[in-house]
Amino acid sequence: QQPVQSPQAVILREGEDAVINCSSSKALYSVHWYRQKHGEAPVFLMILLKGGEQKGHDKISASFNEKKQQSSLYLTASQLSYSGTYFCGTEAGTDKLIFGTGTRLQVFP
Amino acid sequence: NAGVTQTPKFRVLKTGQSMTLLCAQDMNHEYMYWYRQDPGMGLRLIHYSVGEGTTAKGEVPDGYNVSRLKKQNFLLGLESAAPSQTSVYFCASSYSIYEQFFGPGTRLTVL
């Protein structure tokens, strides 16, 4: 069953912040985040393992609440290069990722 | 290193025709995956493999078959193409269940 991502779309001005949420009905071992620019392949951003850790990548960070099976991706001081579709992928100990339907992020000058 | 490559990049088929998509990786990864991507549906897993000679079904396996005879190659076959299989197909590989490296995709149209 696909994880649910919210919101489906976000429009930002440069410098604004955004939060993308990912929720699963299954107990999770890890959550993975990817970004895909239009016409390109998805690119890995980060992985969060069971344990409630928070990770960061430049001004993009994420958290994982394993009790609630939820993860959030935080984009701080957004840049034009952040535009794209963000996918969470959830892993439940089965050697495979199940991806959400994506959140489209557009950053304007 | 080429990373993950996919052949062909584009293909148009008629209903009922068959074809094979080839994915190759040069990173010595054990895990390989085939996804399809449709508007509004995200990436859906078709089949995957956790090592040479092994394959397993994903979320949407019907109408597809796969083979992993060599560690570096993962083939996706459509025996009798249907218009519902019109999609963009991505292959990915990884070292265990960690960062997946995606190929550039194959855009398939079935008429």
Radius of gyration of chain B: 13 Å
Report the principal-axis shape of chain A.
globular
- Figure out the total of helices of chain B: 0
SSE ordering of chain B: EEEEEEEEEEE
Give the beta-strand count of chain B.
11
Shape of chain B: globular
Low-confidence stretches of chain B at least 5 residues in length (pLDDT < 50)?
A: none
Beta-strand content of chain B: over 45%
Fraction of residues in helix of chain A: under 10%
> What kind of sheet is the major sheet of chain A?
6 strands, mixed
| Estimated helix fraction of chain B | under 10%
Number of strands of chain A: 11
Succession of helices and strands of chain A: EEEEEEEEEEE
Tally of helical segments of chain A? 0
Give the termini distance of chain B in whole angstroms. Answer: 36 Å
Short summary:
The complex is a heterodimer of chains A (109) and B (111). The mean pLDDT of chain A is 92.
Topology:
The complex is a heterodimer of chains A (109) and B (111).
Chain A: E1 4-6, E2 9-13, E3 18-23, E4 30-36, E5 43-49, E6 54-57, E7 60-65, E8 70-75, E9 84-91, E10 98-99, E11 103-108
Parallel strand pairs in A: 2-11
Antiparallel strand pairs in A: 1-3, 3-8, 4-5, 4-9, 6-7, 7-8, 9-10, 9-11
Chain B: E1 4-7, E2 10-13, E3 19-25, E4 31-38, E5 42-49, E6 56-57, E7 64-67, E8 73-78, E9 87-94, E10 100-102, E11 106-110
Parallel strand pairs in B: 2-11
Antiparallel strand pairs in B: 1-3, 3-8, 4-5, 4-9, 5-6, 7-8, 9-10, 9-11
Structure characterization notes:
The complex is a heterodimer of chains A (109) and B (111). Chain A has strands spanning 4-6, 9-13, 18-23, 30-36, 43-49, 54-57, 60-65, 70-75, 84-91, 98-99, 103-108. By secondary structure, chain A is mostly beta strands. The mean pLDDT of chain B is 96. The radius of gyration of chain B is 13 Å and the shape is globular. Chain B is mainly beta. Chain B has no helices and 11 strands. In chain B, the strands form 2 sheets. In chain B, strands 2, 4, 5, 6, 9, 10 and 11 form a 7-stranded mixed sheet that branches. Chains A and B meet through strand 4, strand 5, strand 9 and strand 10 of A and strand 4, strand 5 and strand 10 of B.
